[in-house]
Amino acid sequence: MHSAARFNNLLHDQPTDRRVFTLVLSLYGARLTACPLDQHYTDPVAYARGQSAVRETFQPDVLFAPVSVALIGAAFGGKLRYLKSNAPTIAQPAIESAGDWQNLHIPDPEQQPHLVFVREALRRMVAEHRDQVPVAALFLTPVDIPMLVMGMDAWMDAVLFDRQAARRIARGLIPFFVSVANGYFDDGAAYLVLPCAFASPSIVPRTIVEQFSRPIMAEALAQLRGPVALHHLDPPLLPHLDLLADLPAVGGFSLASADNLSQARALLGRRPILLGGPEVRLLRQGSTGEVEAACRAVLEDRRDDPRFILCNSGADLWLDTPPENIHAVRRAVESWASER
Amino acid sequence: MPRDTSKQTEPALTDVRQSLVALIKQADRAGANALLDAWAARHGYEEVFKVLLEPALIGIGESITGEKHTLAQAYVAAKVAEDMLTRAVNQPGANAYAEPEKGPVVLGNAEGDFHALGRRMVATMLRSKGWLVHDLGNDVPPEEFVDQALATGARVIGVSAMTMTTAQGIRALRQELDTRGLTGRMQLAVGGAVFLVMPGLVEEVGGDGTASNMFAAPGLFERLWQASLQAETIHA
User: Cα torsion at A42, A25, A17, A124 (round to 10°)?
Assistant: First the structure.
Protein backbone atom coordinates (compact mmCIF):
# COMPACT_ATOMS: atom_id res chain seq x y z
CA MET A 1 0.00 0.00 0.00
CA HIS A 2 1.48 3.36 -0.97
CA SER A 3 1.18 6.52 1.07
CA ALA A 4 -1.68 8.13 -0.86
CA ALA A 5 -3.80 4.98 -0.55
CA ARG A 6 -2.93 4.69 3.15
CA PHE A 7 -3.86 8.33 3.75
CA ASN A 8 -7.06 8.00 1.76
CA ASN A 9 -8.09 4.87 3.63
CA LEU A 10 -7.50 6.64 6.91
CA LEU A 11 -9.82 9.46 5.86
CA HIS A 12 -12.52 7.03 4.78
CA ASP A 13 -12.28 4.65 7.72
CA GLN A 14 -10.84 1.85 5.63
CA PRO A 15 -8.10 -0.49 6.87
CA THR A 16 -4.46 0.42 6.40
CA ASP A 17 -1.40 -1.83 6.42
CA ARG A 18 0.20 0.36 9.09
CA ARG A 19 -0.19 3.73 10.73
CA VAL A 20 0.14 6.82 8.59
CA PHE A 21 3.18 8.79 9.70
CA THR A 22 4.88 11.96 8.67
CA LEU A 23 7.47 14.44 9.88
CA VAL A 24 7.76 18.09 8.95
CA LEU A 25 10.92 17.93 6.86
CA SER A 26 10.57 21.13 4.88
CA LEU A 27 13.93 22.55 5.97
CA TYR A 28 15.56 19.14 6.02
CA GLY A 29 15.16 18.78 2.27
CA ALA A 30 17.90 21.38 1.87
CA ARG A 31 20.27 19.24 3.92
CA LEU A 32 19.62 16.22 1.77
CA THR A 33 20.33 18.13 -1.45
CA ALA A 34 23.05 20.38 0.03
CA CYS A 35 21.04 23.35 -1.16
CA PRO A 36 21.87 26.82 0.23
CA LEU A 37 18.89 28.02 2.26
CA ASP A 38 18.37 31.24 0.34
CA GLN A 39 17.90 29.11 -2.78
CA HIS A 40 15.83 26.52 -0.92
CA TYR A 41 13.27 29.20 0.01
CA THR A 42 13.18 31.05 -3.33
CA ASP A 43 13.62 28.44 -6.04
CA PRO A 44 10.63 26.10 -6.37
CA VAL A 45 12.65 23.60 -8.40
CA ALA A 46 15.30 23.38 -5.69
CA TYR A 47 12.68 23.09 -2.95
CA ALA A 48 10.78 20.35 -4.77
CA ARG A 49 14.05 18.51 -5.35
CA GLY A 50 14.65 18.59 -1.60
CA GLN A 51 11.25 17.08 -0.90
CA SER A 52 11.89 14.35 -3.48
CA ALA A 53 15.02 13.55 -1.50
CA VAL A 54 12.98 13.50 1.71
CA ARG A 55 10.60 11.02 0.17
CA GLU A 56 13.36 8.85 -1.20
CA THR A 57 15.33 8.86 2.06
CA PHE A 58 12.65 8.62 4.74
CA GLN A 59 9.43 7.69 2.91
CA PRO A 60 6.98 9.69 5.03
CA ASP A 61 3.31 9.40 4.13
CA VAL A 62 2.84 13.17 3.75
CA LEU A 63 5.20 15.72 2.25
CA PHE A 64 5.13 19.44 2.98
CA ALA A 65 5.22 22.45 0.70
CA PRO A 66 7.56 25.23 1.99
CA VAL A 67 7.09 25.74 5.73
CA SER A 68 8.04 29.34 6.39
CA VAL A 69 5.59 31.81 7.88
CA ALA A 70 8.17 34.58 7.39
CA LEU A 71 7.50 34.37 3.65
CA ILE A 72 3.96 35.58 4.39
CA GLY A 73 5.29 38.59 6.27
CA ALA A 74 7.74 39.27 3.47
CA ALA A 75 4.92 39.12 0.94
CA PHE A 76 3.40 42.14 2.69
CA GLY A 77 6.68 44.05 2.51
CA GLY A 78 8.57 42.82 5.55
CA LYS A 79 12.34 42.59 5.28
CA LEU A 80 13.36 38.95 5.04
CA ARG A 81 16.61 37.59 6.45
CA TYR A 82 17.83 34.27 5.11
CA LEU A 83 19.64 32.24 7.74
CA LYS A 84 22.38 29.65 7.42
CA SER A 85 20.72 26.87 9.34
CA ASN A 86 17.06 27.72 9.67
CA ALA A 87 14.05 28.95 7.71
CA PRO A 88 14.12 32.67 6.96
CA THR A 89 12.91 35.17 9.51
CA ILE A 90 11.42 38.65 9.38
CA ALA A 91 14.18 41.14 10.16
CA GLN A 92 11.87 44.12 9.96
CA PRO A 93 8.08 44.01 9.74
CA ALA A 94 6.34 45.82 6.89
CA ILE A 95 4.63 48.26 9.25
CA GLU A 96 5.08 49.28 12.86
CA SER A 97 1.54 49.46 14.17
CA ALA A 98 -2.08 48.73 13.42
CA GLY A 99 -2.48 52.41 12.60
CA ASP A 100 -0.29 51.94 9.53
CA TRP A 101 -2.45 49.15 8.17
CA GLN A 102 -4.60 51.41 6.00
CA ASN A 103 -1.55 52.34 3.90
CA LEU A 104 -0.59 48.72 3.38
CA HIS A 105 -0.90 46.97 0.05
CA ILE A 106 -2.42 43.49 0.28
CA PRO A 107 -0.28 41.28 -1.96
CA ASP A 108 -1.66 39.57 -5.03
CA PRO A 109 -1.25 35.79 -4.49
CA GLU A 110 -0.80 35.30 -8.24
CA GLN A 111 1.97 37.86 -8.56
CA GLN A 112 3.84 38.31 -5.30
CA PRO A 113 7.17 36.43 -5.64
CA HIS A 114 7.23 34.80 -2.18
CA LEU A 115 3.65 33.58 -2.55
CA VAL A 116 4.28 32.44 -6.11
CA PHE A 117 7.34 30.51 -4.90
CA VAL A 118 5.30 28.53 -2.36
CA ARG A 119 2.56 27.83 -4.82
CA GLU A 120 4.92 26.81 -7.60
CA ALA A 121 6.81 24.51 -5.24
CA LEU A 122 3.50 22.95 -4.22
CA ARG A 123 2.46 22.47 -7.84
CA ARG A 124 5.71 20.79 -8.71
CA MET A 125 5.51 18.49 -5.70
CA VAL A 126 1.92 17.53 -6.47
CA ALA A 127 2.79 16.88 -10.10
CA GLU A 128 5.62 14.58 -9.07
CA HIS A 129 4.01 12.76 -6.15
CA ARG A 130 0.27 13.16 -6.73
CA ASP A 131 -0.77 9.53 -6.95
CA GLN A 132 1.78 8.30 -4.45
CA VAL A 133 2.24 10.77 -1.59
CA PRO A 134 -0.14 13.52 -0.38
CA VAL A 135 1.29 17.01 -0.09
CA ALA A 136 0.23 19.39 2.69
CA ALA A 137 0.73 23.15 2.73
CA LEU A 138 1.11 25.61 5.58
CA PHE A 139 -0.62 28.93 5.93
CA LEU A 140 -1.87 31.26 8.68
CA THR A 141 -5.39 32.34 9.52
CA PRO A 142 -6.38 36.02 9.32
CA VAL A 143 -5.98 36.39 13.09
CA ASP A 144 -2.32 35.39 12.89
CA ILE A 145 -1.12 36.92 9.61
CA PRO A 146 -0.85 40.44 11.10
CA MET A 147 1.81 39.38 13.60
CA LEU A 148 4.08 38.69 10.63
CA VAL A 149 3.15 42.00 9.03
CA MET A 150 3.55 44.36 11.99
CA GLY A 151 5.39 42.26 14.56
CA MET A 152 4.09 40.42 17.60
CA ASP A 153 4.18 43.47 19.87
CA ALA A 154 2.10 45.68 17.62
CA TRP A 155 -0.45 42.99 16.84
CA MET A 156 -0.75 42.03 20.49
CA ASP A 157 -1.25 45.69 21.28
CA ALA A 158 -4.06 45.97 18.75
CA VAL A 159 -5.80 42.78 19.84
CA LEU A 160 -5.63 43.78 23.50
CA PHE A 161 -6.14 47.51 23.41
CA ASP A 162 -7.79 48.39 20.09
CA ARG A 163 -10.02 45.44 19.42
CA GLN A 164 -12.09 47.30 16.86
CA ALA A 165 -9.03 48.00 14.70
CA ALA A 166 -7.76 44.44 15.18
CA ARG A 167 -11.11 43.04 14.10
CA ARG A 168 -11.18 45.31 11.06
CA ILE A 169 -7.68 44.22 10.04
CA ALA A 170 -8.30 40.50 10.54
CA ARG A 171 -11.65 40.57 8.78
CA GLY A 172 -10.09 42.54 5.95
CA LEU A 173 -7.59 39.70 5.49
CA ILE A 174 -10.26 37.05 4.99
CA PRO A 175 -10.45 37.44 1.17
CA PHE A 176 -6.65 37.19 0.94
CA PHE A 177 -6.61 34.14 3.21
CA VAL A 178 -9.38 32.44 1.24
CA SER A 179 -7.73 33.21 -2.09
CA VAL A 180 -4.35 31.78 -1.07
CA ALA A 181 -5.78 28.78 0.77
CA ASN A 182 -8.18 27.80 -1.99
CA GLY A 183 -5.35 28.30 -4.47
CA TYR A 184 -3.41 25.65 -2.57
CA PHE A 185 -6.37 23.30 -2.74
CA ASP A 186 -6.75 23.97 -6.47
CA ASP A 187 -3.10 23.08 -6.86
CA GLY A 188 -3.63 19.75 -5.17
CA ALA A 189 -2.81 20.26 -1.49
CA ALA A 190 -4.28 17.35 0.48
CA TYR A 191 -4.83 19.60 3.48
CA LEU A 192 -3.63 22.84 4.99
CA VAL A 193 -1.79 23.15 8.28
CA LEU A 194 -2.81 26.29 10.17
CA PRO A 195 -0.74 27.08 13.27
CA CYS A 196 -2.82 28.77 15.96
CA ALA A 197 -1.07 31.62 17.76
CA PHE A 198 -3.94 33.87 18.71
CA ALA A 199 -5.99 30.85 19.68
CA SER A 200 -3.21 29.24 21.72
CA PRO A 201 -3.68 28.88 25.50
CA SER A 202 -0.11 30.03 25.99
CA ILE A 203 -0.65 33.27 24.12
CA VAL A 204 -4.20 34.48 24.69
CA PRO A 205 -6.88 33.80 27.31
CA ARG A 206 -10.12 32.10 26.39
CA THR A 207 -12.06 35.35 26.24
CA ILE A 208 -9.96 36.59 23.33
CA VAL A 209 -10.48 33.34 21.45
CA GLU A 210 -14.21 33.51 22.12
CA GLN A 211 -14.69 37.18 21.30
CA PHE A 212 -12.06 37.76 18.64
CA SER A 213 -10.17 34.83 17.10
CA ARG A 214 -12.87 32.20 16.79
CA PRO A 215 -15.53 34.30 15.02
CA ILE A 216 -13.03 35.47 12.41
CA MET A 217 -11.57 32.00 11.96
CA ALA A 218 -15.08 30.60 11.53
CA GLU A 219 -15.95 33.14 8.86
CA ALA A 220 -12.69 32.52 6.99
CA LEU A 221 -12.66 28.73 7.25
CA ALA A 222 -16.26 28.45 6.05
CA GLN A 223 -15.09 29.65 2.63
CA LEU A 224 -12.43 27.00 2.09
CA ARG A 225 -12.70 24.21 -0.45
CA GLY A 226 -10.65 21.68 1.47
CA PRO A 227 -9.75 20.39 4.94
CA VAL A 228 -7.40 22.00 7.42
CA ALA A 229 -5.49 20.77 10.45
CA LEU A 230 -5.13 23.27 13.27
CA HIS A 231 -1.63 23.16 14.69
CA HIS A 232 -0.62 23.67 18.32
CA LEU A 233 2.36 25.88 17.43
CA ASP A 234 4.56 24.55 20.26
CA PRO A 235 2.80 24.58 23.65
CA PRO A 236 -0.28 22.44 24.36
CA LEU A 237 -3.55 23.30 22.63
CA LEU A 238 -5.89 21.18 24.74
CA PRO A 239 -7.16 23.93 27.10
CA HIS A 240 -8.67 25.76 24.10
CA LEU A 241 -9.57 22.75 22.01
CA ASP A 242 -13.27 22.99 22.86
CA LEU A 243 -13.33 26.50 21.38
CA LEU A 244 -11.87 25.25 18.10
CA ALA A 245 -13.65 21.91 17.88
CA ASP A 246 -16.51 22.70 15.55
CA LEU A 247 -14.95 25.29 13.29
CA PRO A 248 -15.76 24.81 9.60
CA ALA A 249 -13.30 22.87 7.40
CA VAL A 250 -11.30 21.64 10.38
CA GLY A 251 -10.60 17.97 9.78
CA GLY A 252 -7.76 17.50 12.19
CA PHE A 253 -5.68 18.78 15.05
CA SER A 254 -1.92 18.59 15.34
CA LEU A 255 -1.25 18.45 19.06
CA ALA A 256 1.73 18.96 21.33
CA SER A 257 3.59 16.11 22.95
CA ALA A 258 2.39 17.53 26.27
CA ASP A 259 -1.25 17.34 25.17
CA ASN A 260 -3.23 14.40 26.46
CA LEU A 261 -4.43 12.70 23.28
CA SER A 262 -7.09 10.67 25.06
CA GLN A 263 -8.61 13.81 26.54
CA ALA A 264 -8.45 15.46 23.14
CA ARG A 265 -10.25 12.54 21.53
CA ALA A 266 -12.91 12.50 24.24
CA LEU A 267 -13.49 16.18 23.75
CA LEU A 268 -13.52 16.17 19.95
CA GLY A 269 -15.42 12.96 19.27
CA ARG A 270 -14.32 10.29 16.81
CA ARG A 271 -14.25 12.21 13.49
CA PRO A 272 -11.34 14.66 13.56
CA ILE A 273 -7.93 13.26 12.69
CA LEU A 274 -5.46 13.65 15.54
CA LEU A 275 -1.79 14.19 14.77
CA GLY A 276 0.80 13.80 17.49
CA GLY A 277 4.13 12.30 18.37
CA PRO A 278 7.65 13.05 19.57
CA GLU A 279 8.68 16.66 19.68
CA VAL A 280 11.36 18.11 17.43
CA ARG A 281 13.74 18.55 20.37
CA LEU A 282 13.73 14.85 21.13
CA LEU A 283 14.29 14.07 17.47
CA ARG A 284 17.30 16.39 17.46
CA GLN A 285 18.88 15.42 20.75
CA GLY A 286 17.53 12.04 21.75
CA SER A 287 19.04 8.67 20.94
CA THR A 288 17.44 6.49 18.30
CA GLY A 289 16.23 4.26 21.10
CA GLU A 290 14.54 7.16 22.85
CA VAL A 291 12.91 8.32 19.62
CA GLU A 292 11.68 4.85 18.80
CA ALA A 293 10.37 4.37 22.34
CA ALA A 294 8.54 7.70 22.26
CA CYS A 295 6.91 6.79 18.96
CA ARG A 296 5.86 3.38 20.21
CA ALA A 297 4.42 4.91 23.36
CA VAL A 298 2.22 7.22 21.31
CA LEU A 299 1.21 4.42 18.96
CA GLU A 300 0.31 2.26 21.94
CA ASP A 301 -1.67 5.12 23.48
CA ARG A 302 -3.62 5.44 20.19
CA ARG A 303 -4.02 1.69 19.71
CA ASP A 304 -7.80 1.90 19.54
CA ASP A 305 -7.94 5.22 17.74
CA PRO A 306 -7.95 4.59 13.99
CA ARG A 307 -8.11 8.26 13.04
CA PHE A 308 -4.60 9.10 14.12
CA ILE A 309 -1.41 10.12 12.30
CA LEU A 310 1.98 9.88 13.94
CA CYS A 311 3.66 13.23 13.32
CA ASN A 312 6.30 15.21 15.17
CA SER A 313 5.00 17.86 17.53
CA GLY A 314 6.48 21.34 17.33
CA ALA A 315 7.55 22.87 14.07
CA ASP A 316 9.91 21.93 11.27
CA LEU A 317 12.71 19.51 12.16
CA TRP A 318 16.07 21.14 12.74
CA LEU A 319 18.70 20.87 10.09
CA ASP A 320 21.07 19.03 12.42
CA THR A 321 18.57 16.36 13.42
CA PRO A 322 20.38 13.04 13.05
CA PRO A 323 18.99 11.13 10.06
CA GLU A 324 19.03 7.90 12.08
CA ASN A 325 16.45 9.46 14.42
CA ILE A 326 14.16 10.14 11.48
CA HIS A 327 14.60 6.58 10.30
CA ALA A 328 13.75 5.48 13.84
CA VAL A 329 10.26 6.99 13.53
CA ARG A 330 9.54 4.96 10.46
CA ARG A 331 11.03 1.87 12.03
CA ALA A 332 8.78 2.29 15.07
CA VAL A 333 5.68 2.54 12.87
CA GLU A 334 6.59 -0.51 10.84
CA SER A 335 7.65 -2.70 13.74
CA TRP A 336 4.60 -1.73 15.77
CA ALA A 337 2.36 -2.72 12.84
CA SER A 338 4.12 -6.02 12.31
CA GLU A 339 3.72 -6.99 15.96
CA ARG A 340 -0.04 -6.54 15.97
CA MET B 1 0.10 66.27 42.01
CA PRO B 2 -0.82 67.05 45.64
CA ARG B 3 -0.90 63.97 47.84
CA ASP B 4 -4.29 63.04 49.26
CA THR B 5 -3.75 61.84 52.82
CA SER B 6 -7.38 60.99 53.53
CA LYS B 7 -7.71 57.38 54.75
CA GLN B 8 -11.45 57.32 55.33
CA THR B 9 -12.33 55.35 52.20
CA GLU B 10 -9.03 53.52 51.86
CA PRO B 11 -9.66 49.92 50.74
CA ALA B 12 -7.54 47.14 52.21
CA LEU B 13 -4.19 46.70 50.44
CA THR B 14 -4.81 43.04 49.73
CA ASP B 15 -8.14 43.91 48.10
CA VAL B 16 -6.47 46.50 45.92
CA ARG B 17 -3.77 44.03 44.89
CA GLN B 18 -6.39 41.46 44.03
CA SER B 19 -8.30 44.03 42.00
CA LEU B 20 -5.10 44.95 40.16
CA VAL B 21 -4.32 41.34 39.30
CA ALA B 22 -7.91 40.83 38.13
CA LEU B 23 -7.74 43.89 35.89
CA ILE B 24 -4.45 42.75 34.37
CA LYS B 25 -5.84 39.27 33.79
CA GLN B 26 -8.79 40.86 31.99
CA ALA B 27 -6.31 42.86 29.87
CA ASP B 28 -7.93 46.02 31.27
CA ARG B 29 -4.93 48.30 30.99
CA ALA B 30 -6.95 51.49 31.48
CA GLY B 31 -8.66 50.08 34.56
CA ALA B 32 -5.34 48.97 36.06
CA ASN B 33 -3.80 52.37 35.39
CA ALA B 34 -6.76 54.14 36.98
CA LEU B 35 -6.46 51.99 40.08
CA LEU B 36 -2.72 52.66 40.34
CA ASP B 37 -3.13 56.38 39.72
CA ALA B 38 -5.69 56.56 42.49
CA TRP B 39 -3.27 54.82 44.84
CA ALA B 40 -0.43 57.10 43.74
CA ALA B 41 -2.57 60.14 44.50
CA ARG B 42 -2.68 59.01 48.12
CA HIS B 43 0.74 57.49 48.59
CA GLY B 44 3.05 58.51 45.75
CA TYR B 45 4.40 56.49 42.86
CA GLU B 46 7.27 54.97 44.81
CA GLU B 47 4.71 53.32 47.09
CA VAL B 48 2.74 52.20 44.05
CA PHE B 49 5.76 50.23 42.88
CA LYS B 50 6.75 48.89 46.28
CA VAL B 51 3.50 47.82 47.84
CA LEU B 52 1.14 47.37 44.91
CA LEU B 53 2.59 46.83 41.48
CA GLU B 54 5.66 44.81 42.39
CA PRO B 55 3.85 42.26 44.58
CA ALA B 56 1.15 41.95 41.93
CA LEU B 57 3.73 41.36 39.20
CA ILE B 58 5.56 38.80 41.31
CA GLY B 59 2.27 36.99 41.91
CA ILE B 60 1.48 37.02 38.22
CA GLY B 61 5.00 35.80 37.46
CA GLU B 62 4.64 32.91 39.85
CA SER B 63 1.36 31.89 38.29
CA ILE B 64 2.86 32.17 34.79
CA THR B 65 5.42 29.63 35.86
CA GLY B 66 2.45 27.47 36.80
CA GLU B 67 1.00 28.17 33.32
CA LYS B 68 -2.02 29.99 34.69
CA HIS B 69 -1.43 33.13 32.68
CA THR B 70 -0.93 33.79 29.00
CA LEU B 71 1.57 35.83 27.03
CA ALA B 72 -1.21 38.39 26.52
CA GLN B 73 -1.66 38.80 30.25
CA ALA B 74 2.09 39.11 30.81
CA TYR B 75 2.13 41.70 28.05
CA VAL B 76 -0.61 43.69 29.76
CA ALA B 77 1.31 43.52 33.04
CA ALA B 78 4.43 44.86 31.33
CA LYS B 79 2.42 47.61 29.69
CA VAL B 80 0.90 48.66 33.00
CA ALA B 81 4.37 48.74 34.58
CA GLU B 82 5.62 50.79 31.63
CA ASP B 83 2.68 53.18 31.96
CA MET B 84 3.45 53.66 35.65
CA LEU B 85 7.12 54.30 34.93
CA THR B 86 6.21 56.93 32.36
CA ARG B 87 3.79 58.60 34.74
CA ALA B 88 6.23 58.44 37.64
CA VAL B 89 9.14 60.05 35.81
CA ASN B 90 6.84 62.79 34.56
CA GLN B 91 5.61 63.67 38.04
CA PRO B 92 7.20 66.78 39.54
CA GLY B 93 8.62 66.93 43.04
CA ALA B 94 8.25 64.59 45.95
CA ASN B 95 5.65 62.37 44.38
CA ALA B 96 8.01 61.26 41.65
CA TYR B 97 9.50 57.78 41.50
CA ALA B 98 13.25 57.68 41.93
CA GLU B 99 15.67 57.72 39.00
CA PRO B 100 17.32 54.41 38.12
CA GLU B 101 19.55 53.35 40.98
CA LYS B 102 20.89 50.05 39.69
CA GLY B 103 23.00 49.07 36.72
CA PRO B 104 23.55 49.94 34.03
CA VAL B 105 22.89 46.73 32.13
CA VAL B 106 22.81 45.99 28.43
CA LEU B 107 20.02 44.07 26.69
CA GLY B 108 19.60 42.83 23.17
CA ASN B 109 18.48 39.99 20.94
CA ALA B 110 21.16 37.57 19.81
CA GLU B 111 22.60 37.98 16.35
CA GLY B 112 20.01 36.86 13.80
CA ASP B 113 17.15 37.02 16.31
CA PHE B 114 14.30 39.41 15.62
CA HIS B 115 11.76 38.41 18.26
CA ALA B 116 11.63 41.64 20.23
CA LEU B 117 8.60 41.14 22.45
CA GLY B 118 10.26 39.18 25.25
CA ARG B 119 13.27 41.47 25.37
CA ARG B 120 11.10 44.57 25.59
CA MET B 121 9.02 43.08 28.37
CA VAL B 122 12.14 42.17 30.34
CA ALA B 123 13.48 45.71 29.85
CA THR B 124 10.25 47.09 31.28
CA MET B 125 10.44 44.81 34.30
CA LEU B 126 14.06 45.78 34.95
CA ARG B 127 13.28 49.48 34.69
CA SER B 128 10.34 49.10 37.04
CA LYS B 129 12.82 47.71 39.59
CA GLY B 130 15.16 50.66 39.20
CA TRP B 131 17.65 49.32 36.67
CA LEU B 132 19.18 51.55 34.03
CA VAL B 133 18.77 49.54 30.83
CA HIS B 134 20.55 50.10 27.53
CA ASP B 135 18.42 48.27 25.01
CA LEU B 136 20.44 47.52 21.86
CA GLY B 137 17.49 46.04 19.95
CA ASN B 138 17.36 43.04 17.61
CA ASP B 139 20.13 41.18 15.81
CA VAL B 140 23.06 42.40 17.91
CA PRO B 141 26.55 41.08 16.98
CA PRO B 142 28.66 39.75 19.89
CA GLU B 143 31.28 42.51 19.53
CA GLU B 144 28.59 45.19 19.82
CA PHE B 145 27.22 43.67 23.00
CA VAL B 146 30.64 43.78 24.62
CA ASP B 147 31.60 47.18 23.23
CA GLN B 148 28.39 48.73 24.53
CA ALA B 149 28.68 47.02 27.91
CA LEU B 150 32.22 48.37 28.32
CA ALA B 151 31.23 51.82 27.11
CA THR B 152 28.35 52.10 29.56
CA GLY B 153 29.98 50.35 32.52
CA ALA B 154 27.51 47.48 32.52
CA ARG B 155 28.31 44.38 34.53
CA VAL B 156 25.50 42.28 33.07
CA ILE B 157 24.61 41.60 29.44
CA GLY B 158 21.15 40.17 28.83
CA VAL B 159 20.70 38.25 25.58
CA SER B 160 17.35 37.08 24.27
CA ALA B 161 16.97 34.27 21.74
CA MET B 162 13.79 32.61 20.64
CA THR B 163 15.09 29.75 18.56
CA MET B 164 17.67 27.06 18.95
CA THR B 165 19.67 28.46 16.06
CA THR B 166 19.97 31.98 17.44
CA ALA B 167 20.58 30.65 20.96
CA GLN B 168 23.55 28.70 19.64
CA GLY B 169 24.91 32.01 18.36
CA ILE B 170 25.34 33.15 21.98
CA ARG B 171 28.43 30.94 22.12
CA ALA B 172 30.21 33.58 20.06
CA LEU B 173 29.33 36.21 22.67
CA ARG B 174 30.64 33.96 25.42
CA GLN B 175 33.85 33.56 23.46
CA GLU B 176 34.09 37.31 22.92
CA LEU B 177 33.80 37.92 26.67
CA ASP B 178 36.38 35.28 27.47
CA THR B 179 38.78 36.47 24.79
CA ARG B 180 38.67 40.01 26.14
CA GLY B 181 39.38 38.77 29.66
CA LEU B 182 35.94 39.71 30.96
CA THR B 183 34.95 36.29 32.29
CA GLY B 184 33.16 36.70 35.60
CA ARG B 185 33.54 40.49 35.56
CA MET B 186 30.90 40.72 32.82
CA GLN B 187 28.01 38.36 33.52
CA LEU B 188 25.88 36.88 30.76
CA ALA B 189 22.12 36.49 31.32
CA VAL B 190 20.35 34.47 28.63
CA GLY B 191 16.64 34.11 28.06
CA GLY B 192 13.89 33.28 25.59
CA ALA B 193 11.43 30.53 24.96
CA VAL B 194 14.01 28.00 23.84
CA PHE B 195 15.81 28.09 27.19
CA LEU B 196 12.65 27.06 28.99
CA VAL B 197 12.26 23.90 26.99
CA MET B 198 15.88 22.86 26.53
CA PRO B 199 17.45 21.79 29.81
CA GLY B 200 21.16 22.43 29.82
CA LEU B 201 21.08 24.98 27.03
CA VAL B 202 22.11 27.83 29.33
CA GLU B 203 25.36 26.05 30.18
CA GLU B 204 25.77 24.81 26.61
CA VAL B 205 25.90 28.34 25.19
CA GLY B 206 27.96 29.72 28.08
CA GLY B 207 25.28 31.66 29.92
CA ASP B 208 25.76 32.59 33.58
CA GLY B 209 22.05 32.35 34.36
CA THR B 210 18.50 32.58 33.10
CA ALA B 211 15.04 33.46 34.40
CA SER B 212 11.87 31.47 33.91
CA ASN B 213 9.87 34.57 32.96
CA MET B 214 10.12 38.33 32.75
CA PHE B 215 9.01 38.81 36.32
CA ALA B 216 11.98 36.82 37.56
CA ALA B 217 14.45 38.80 35.43
CA PRO B 218 15.19 41.55 38.01
CA GLY B 219 16.16 38.92 40.58
CA LEU B 220 18.47 37.25 38.07
CA PHE B 221 20.16 40.52 37.16
CA GLU B 222 20.61 41.32 40.86
CA ARG B 223 22.35 37.97 41.43
CA LEU B 224 24.55 38.35 38.40
CA TRP B 225 25.49 41.90 39.35
CA GLN B 226 26.62 40.65 42.73
CA ALA B 227 28.52 37.80 41.09
CA SER B 228 30.32 40.33 38.92
CA LEU B 229 31.34 42.36 41.97
CA GLN B 230 32.62 39.25 43.71
CA ALA B 231 34.60 38.19 40.64
CA GLU B 232 36.21 41.61 40.50
CA THR B 233 37.10 41.42 44.20
CA ILE B 234 38.70 38.03 43.75
CA HIS B 235 40.78 39.20 40.80
CA ALA B 236 41.76 42.50 42.42
Answer: 0
Cβ–Cβ below 8 Å for B75 and A156: yes
Could A203 and B25 be called an inter-chain contact, meaning their C-beta atoms sit closer than 8 Å?
A: no
Neighbours of B226 (CB within 10 A): 12
**Chain B interface includes A281 (CB < 8 A):** yes
Residues of chain A with C-beta less than 8 angstroms from the C-beta of B198: 281
- Positive or negative, the CA dihedral B6, B10, B13, B17 is negative
Of B79, B113, B198, the CB nearest to A281: B198
% of chain B surpassing 70 pLDDT: 86
Q: Which amino acid, residue B170?
A: I
- Residue A175 vs residues A69, A109, A229: alpha-carbon distances, Å: 18, 11, 20
| B195 Rama sector, left if φ>0, alpha if ψ -120 to 50, beta otherwise | alpha
Q: Is the pLDDT of residue B10 over 70?
A: no
User: Domain residue spans in chain A?
Assistant: 3-338
Bigger pLDDT: A143 vs B91? A143
- The confidence score (pLDDT) of residue A148 equals 94
Three-state SS sequence of chain B: CCCCCCCCCCCCHHHHHHHHHHHHHCCCHHHHHHHHHHHHHHHCHHHHHHHHHHHHHHHHHHHHHCCCCCHHHHHHHHHHHHHHHHHHHCCCHHHCCCCCCEEEEEEEEECCCCCHHHHHHHHHHHHHCCEEEEECCCCECHHHHHHHHHHHCCCEEEEECCCHHHHHCHHHHHHHHHHCCCECCEEEEEECHHHHHCCCHHHHHCCCECCCCHHHHHHHHHHHHHHHHHHHHHHC
Question: What residue segments make up the domains of chain B, in order of their start?
Answer: 13-95, 102-235
Q: Which element (helix H / strand E) includes A57?
A: helix A44-58
> What is the per-residue pLDDT for B8?
53
CATH code assigned to B102-235:
3.40.50.280
Alpha-carbon span A303 to A265, nearest angstrom: 13
Which parts of chain A sit beneath pLDDT 70? none
> Domain B13-95 belongs to what architecture?
Orthogonal Bundle (1.10)
Q: Compute the count of residue pairs across chains A and B with CB atoms less than 8 Å apart.
A: 63
Asked if B114 lies within 8 A of A201 by C-beta distance, the reply is no
Report CB contact under 8 Å: B70, A160.
no
pLDDT one-digit tens code per residue, A119-177 = 999 999 999 998 899 999 999 999 999 999 999 989 999 999 999 999 999 999 999 99
Is the separation of the CB atoms in A306 and A271 below 8 Å? no
SS3 percent helix, strand, coil of chain A, rounded to 5, is 50, 10, 40
Q: When comparing pLDDT for A283 and B51, which is higher?
A: A283
What's the rounded Cα separation, in Å, for the pair A45 and A30?
12
Residue range A3-338 in CATH 3.40.50.20: no
Residues 6 or more apart from A104 whose CB is under 8 A from it?
A: A76, A77, A94, A95, A149
Interface test with B, best of A31, A157, A204, A282 (most B CBs within 10 A): A204
